[in-house]
Specification:
The protein is built from nine helices and eight strands. The chain is of the alpha/beta class. The protein starts with 25 loop residues before the first strand and ends with a helix.
């Protein structure tokens, strides 16, 4: 989950959408956390403004001010406590449409027990584990992980892959191929290395297109802030164009990545930049990105 602080050259553009503009917006990627002992080990004072508690009340006000009506909460800690707190928030707040919780993928027995527990909640809709912090390049090929993914496929739950480039994006395509009944959700377009070399971007594009070749793969247009690079429609042109060509709007979804995105831009600014990109599409295509793909991925029974 760690993100670098934005550098002085980071540019931000984009006007927030008009509240009440009639556009239905469902944020596919939002976090909450409450700092406490033994939780969110990745988060520390070095993360600046992220190093505090972010509540559902604050999130609801932030979304409403930016013209976003609902959101999917996504796990930010590999603990059952994080999932429990999100489910409790979802029970108390109608704007929380669903919860992507945690499972210990390398322990299929424990994963099965927790899965049965989580599925008792009507808003539990997917699973994510912070594999991007795992230095092993072959973690998604481990037999135990494959057994847990098979559980998710059988349960009809989506599986999120965080920050997949460079270690895990190629493997994600293998998962999509092996489990055709599993919806593989690529968070943040795999984290394209926009501040890297041309070769880095070319490798990201090849791997992204490889995953997109499988119809059970979808991707979130989220988390695209990058230290030292602009956050404008022009600066995002390549990643947006590649994503549209690879997935099509019917397999892309908007995600704000709040509050992590605060390291690059305010929430309303983030929504504004995405609005300019999505504004290039037809109304039907735009509706898919704003809410249709997310509803189909997470909220259909």
């Amino acid at each position: 989950m760690s993100r670098p602080e934005p550098g002085p050259t980071t540019a931000v553009a984009g006007n927030a959408p008009q509240v009440g503009d009639g556009v239905v917006r469902l944020d596919a990627h939002l976090h909450l956390w409450e700092l406490g002992e033994g939780r969110y080990s990745w988060l520390g004072p070095q993360h600046g403004r992220l190093f505090r508690t972010f509540t559902a009340d604050e999130a609801g006000r932030t979304l409403s001010a930016a013209g976003v009506g609902r959101a999917i909460l996504v796990q930010a800690d590999d603990t059952s406590a994080d999932t429990e707190s999100m489910l409790a928030a979802a029970a108390a707040h109608g704007w929380i449409a669903g919860v992507v919780g945690w499972l210990p993928l390398e322990d299929p027995s424990a994963a099965a027990a927790l899965l049965e527990r989580w599925q008792a909640h009507p808003k539990f809709c997917g699973v994510r584990t912070l594999i991007h912090d795992d230095p092993r390049p072959g973690v998604l090929e481990l037999p135990a992980v494959r057994a847990s993914l098979r559980l998710l496929e059988s349960a009809g739950l989506a599986w999120d892959v965080p920050d997949a480039f460079p270690r895990h994006l190629g493997q994600a395509a293998g998962v999509a191929r092996t489990f055709p009944g599993l919806t593989v959700v690529l968070d943040h377009l795999g984290k394209p290395p926009r501040a890297g070399t041309a070769a880095d971007m070319d490798q990201w594009e090849r791997q992204l297109r490889s995953l997109a070749a499988f119809p059970n793969a979808v991707a979130k247009v989220s988390g695209l802030h990058c230290d030292g690079t602009g956050f404008t429609p022009a600066a995002l042109d390549r990643v947006w164009t590649v994503a549209l060509e690879a997935f099509g709007p019917e397999r892309l979804m908007f995600g704000g990545d709040w509050p992590v995105s605060l390291l690059g831009a305010g929430y309303a600014q983030t929504v504004g930049v995405i609005s300019e990109l999505v504004g290039m599409l037809s109304p039907r295509e735009a509706a898919a990105v704003w809410h249709g793909t997310t509803e189909r991925t997470y909220l259909q029974a």
